[in-house]
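Render Roadblock/LAMTOR2 domain-containing protein in 3D.
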Amino acid sequence: MNSRRRRGAVARGRHGEFRSRHVYDRGCGSPTEEAKELFATLHRYQGVLGVIATLSDGAVITSTMPGHDDTNRYARMAAGLCSESRSIMGAGHKGQPSYFTVKDGNHEIVITPGVVYTVIVVKQQQEPPEEAFQ
C-alpha cells in the first residue's frame, strides 16, 4: 500500500494527526537531523558566531553559542521582541514578521520567529570599507 502513495502525500499519523511525508522523502530521518543540518549550514557563513533555537516563550532548545549567559540573554531578547511584534500587529493581522535584524556595536542578531520555534543567528557585524568615511 505504501508503494502506491504519491510522493509528498499527507499520511495519517499514529494518533490521528496528519503529517507530511516530505520530511521523510528528503533523506532526513527526523526533524532533529533536519535541525542539525540547518545549524551546520548557518554556521558555515562568514562571521556567524552562533545559532540558537528556542521555543516561542524563550526557552532554549539548543545552541552553538559558547556561553550560557549570552545564549539566555539573546533568547530572552528574542522572546520579548516577538511578543511585542505580535501585540503591535494585533489580533486582526494574520501574519507576523518573517525576521528581525538587530544591530549593536559589534554584533548583528537575526531573529526568525515561528509559531512554535524561533531561530536566532548571531553574526559579527561587517566593518564598512575605509573609503566609505572619506
